[in-house]
Design a protein that fits this description.
Strand 1 (5-6) and strand 2 form a beta hairpin. The relative contact order is 0.18. Helix 2 crosses helix 3 (88-113). It is built from 3 helices and 2 strands. It has a two-stranded antiparallel sheet. Helix content is 40%, strand content 3%.
């Protein structure tokens, strides 16, 4: 979703969510050693809410139409598709994770966990150019 991963050559792709959870677990160990009670809003790569992107397809279509895309395409052609943000798939995924999933996690924090401190980890998974520097 949202191309939240990167890959160098033929290596295994690095997924943002997997990397974040791995770092959170490492950090949790250190915090617990210091006496902190540590809770997670998620413990695996599954969403915290029951909703999924397909649940937002009709709303995504309406949003696109309202925003000037009278006949939105159903799906993205490929990662280089210049019109991908105007597809129902792209918009339904955004509605899922930027609204449903993020709000679901916030509800867990605010209404169930009640922490004294919240740490939100985030990585930007994007490719980078390899540059050679001669000294």
């Amino acid at each position: 979703m949202e191309e939240r991963w990167f890959q160098v050559g033929d290596s295994k792709p690095v997924q943002e969510g997997d990397l974040t959870l791995r770092v959170a677990r490492l950090l949790a160990t250190r915090l617990r050693d210091l006496g902190a009670n540590v809770s997670f809003v998620r413990n695996d790569d599954e969403p915290t809410t029951a909703k999924r992107p397909d649940d937002f397809r009709e709303l995504a279509r309406k949003v696109l139409i309202r925003n000037g895309v009278p006949q939105p395409r159903a799906d993205v052609l490929d990662s280089t598709d210049p019109e991908k943000e105007k597809t129902i798939r792209w918009q339904s995924e955004i509605l899922f994770y930027r609204y449903s999933e993020i709000r679901g996690r916030a509800a867990l924090v605010n209404f169930k966990l009640h922490p004294d401190l919240v740490l939100c980890l985030h990585f930007n998974a994007e490719g980078w150019a390899i540059r050679l520097v001669r000294c």
